[in-house]
Amino acid sequence: MEPIEWDRSFEDSRGARLFAYVFLGSFFGLGLLIAISLVVALPLLVGSLLDEPAMLAVVALFALVGGPMSLLYLWPLLTDPEQRQGIWVSSWPAALSRTGAIAAAILGAAAHVITAWVTGMGPALLLAVGGLVGSLGMSLFLSSGRIDPNARTLTIRPNHWAERSATRTVDLDGWTNLRQYRIGPVVVLWPSYASGSSGPRPRLLTVPPRVADAAAPVFEAAIDVPAPERERATNPTVGAVLVVFGLGTFAVGAALWTLDAVPAAFRAWFAAFAGVFGFLFLAAAWRER
């Protein structure tokens, strides 16, 4: 049986482009607001500086050092290709339209203003939400990999938009079960792994529907293979301690959320922080079952 390969890029996925605009809009929108604020405040600032020539000279000096004169440091990097070797810059924004990026920036700026007005929180909230939702959405719709039916391995490139990112090879014989969910133009694979399996163990994988259909016999054959024996003995005591830590972390996060004297933004940050670590403690305890 021939290997099964696929590669879904931004050009192939409208959903990936949409989530990319969400990601860019949260950051470009904040930059647009800062630029507008500077343009509005610049005449007032220049007017006040004209009354103090010494301060105006200091500001002009810093502007020159941080502006045109900084090109003296970057000139070798800009003119000599050898100086740029080893420097990698993500090229995935080039797959998006300039009009879409501008529209995302305008909508992102409006979202920042509305969020600050409704919740009273700063831009950190929208940056976190936009960055998380955008990156997760892109990871869902973008996928690239190869399935070798003979070796029963699945090779994926987790960071699809980074052309130089390393690949990960999953041993399909370590699967004990597989659940599949169709979400639009992709199929989400949710495998379960044997306790003693080695190597990478990604919990969620996305493939095009044609790949899921073509690889169905390979998945079934891999799951039918007896699971390897467990290599590491469980420790119920460690599991119990981790459960206590996890529940205690959740309790601390809930207690911090009830402190009205603390600003809402800090309470939300601490509660989210406690929730993440509480989940990690409980996940580690689950492995000791």
UniProtKB/TrEMBL annotation:
Domain of life: Archaea
Membrane-traversing stretches: 18-42, 54-78, 99-118, 124-142, 238-259, 265-286
Keyword list, A-Z: Membrane, Transmembrane, Transmembrane helix
Name this polypeptide is given: Uncharacterized protein
Native source organism of the sequence: Halomicrobium zhouii
